[in-house]
Design goal:
It comes from Phialocephala subalpina. By secondary structure, the chain is α/β, with parallel strands linked by helices. It contains eight helices and twelve strands. The chain has a single domain, classed as Carbon-nitrogen hydrolase (Nitrilase/N-carbamoyl-D-aminoacid amidohydrolase).
């Protein structure tokens, strides 16, 4: 049974990971995830969020190189072999770390369909304080070049779980700005939302601006706290797909960026780091502040009229 509003923890501590995987190494990156979970637990965090596709790393090469020529196919082969099957030893290890740390975690993975020689999903795994795998969310639609690597999600519209501080939700990268996804999620009344992001987009993109524009709006429309967990470019990434001087220069510039933040409906409350670094951002927040915000703007309830927009969906149900 979900806790009632008066029973929710009044104050919680959030943790946003800014780190890089051990690129295309599932075992080593899982060990890193567990270490960060235990660190956050020692620091009293209630929930920790991880970047997009953190295990074993986001296929960022799709943004910077030809997709049909080498080394792209070989990079996909490595990614596939190092992808995570759920359940499996990786999810078990992460669950054990969450139980030891007494923490909720949302972890980004590349998920492999078991017993196949193809098909990956861009996935978030939700873990409870007791180590239980509570939910699996697969990205609704892969973004741009990801569509060659990841299949569309098959886990439906649900992307949240119930916790002792209220609803914990998560979206991956661009779907954080999807209006229908936001509305669907608003019906679960999230208190904390984990937005998982990669280390870079294509050259010329302003990743930090995109993250802040999308998630400041998300925090306001959902009236929730947002953990922006963002990957960093490691030297191993540069070595793997820095195929020419221009690409290496771009990746080296991306290494200097500081992007992890924690957002409240009123704006940024933690981050970014002062230096380009790997680490965990923390923020203590009050759940009652969200209830006050819903006094005026509850888009899942009194401040919406879903019935007057229903006609937009007739064509999806065979009606003319």
């Amino acid at each position: 049974m979900a806790p009632s509003a008066q029973d929710l923890k009044p104050k919680i501590k959030l943790a946003a990971v800014q780190s890089g995987p051990v690129f295309l190494n599932k075992a080593a990156t899982t060990e890193k995830v567990c270490s960060l979970i235990l660190e956050a637990g020692r620091n009293g965090a209630d929930v920790i969020g991880f970047p997009e596709g953190f295990i074993p790393g986001h296929p960022g090469w799709v943004e910077v190189m030809p997709l049909s020529a080498e080394p792209a196919p070989s990079l996909f082969l490595e990614l596939f072999k190092q992808a995570v099957e759920v359940p499996g030893p990786e999810s078990e290890a992460i669950g054990a770390a969450c139980k030891e740390a007494n923490i909720f975690a949302v972890v980004g993975i590349n998920e492999r369909r078991p017993n196949t020689t193809g098909t990956l999903f861009n996935t978030q795994l939700f873990f409870g304080r007791d180590g239980t795998l509570l939910h699996k969310h697969q990205k609704f639609v892969p973004t741009v070049g990801e569509r060659l690597v990841h299949a569309p999600g098959e886990t439906g519209s649900k992307s949240s779980v119930t916790t002792d501080f209220g609803t914990l939700s998560g979206f991956i990268c661009g779907e954080n700005g999807n209006p229908l996804a936001q509305y669907s999620l608003s019906l679960d009344y999230p208190v904390v939302h984990v937005a998982s992001w990669p280390s870079h987009f294509c050259p010329g993109s302003d990743v930090q601006n995109a993250i802040l524009v999308i998630t400041r709006g998300l925090a306001t429309s959902l009236m929730c706290y947002v953990i922006n967990s963002v990957a960093v470019v490691g030297d191993d990434v540069v070595e793997k797909y820095g195929i020419d001087d221009a690409t290496r220069k771009f990746l080296r510039e991306e290494q200097k960026k500081r992007r992890a933040t924690i957002i409240a409906p009123g704006g940024v409350i933690a981050g970014p780091f002062e230096e380009a670094q790997e680490g965990i951002l923390y923020a203590e927040v009050h759940t009652d502040d969200l209830i006050k915000g819903k006094y005026g703007l509850d888009y899942a309830g009194h401040y919406n009229r879903p019935e007057i927009f229903a006609h937009h969906f007739k064509r999806y149900f065979g009606q003319k």
